[in-house]
Amino acid sequence: MADAGITGSKRSALRFAGYDRPMTFRTDYDDGTAQLVNISTSGCAIHRATPELEVEQKILLTFELDRPSNPLNIRAVVIRIDGGNIALQFQHIDENIKRRIVRFFAKETRRQKSELKSTS
Q: Residue 86: which residues within 8 A CB-CB, separation 6 or more?
């Protein structure tokens, strides 16, 4: 499972842990599944992708956050594959979706930290 929390980097957006959240994706030819490693408002990292993806491949990500009846659908392109991790850059992401990502994962991070404190 990915570490809980928010990480800083040389990127322009905060990156949140993905908590191995399941997601689906669609390529031009296949439907697939993966686990979310981390996410920001500009992209994400996934692993355990089936079928395998290739650099520069365009996909449509779908995953549930706060409202299962209203999943996020985000167009992305594979920018790097490093071992089992796949880096994706979001394409033309709407500001409302960016806000949903930040709100949900900030809340999830607080919840995870609270759970860690209560078990210590």
A: 34, 45, 46, 47, 49, 53, 78, 80
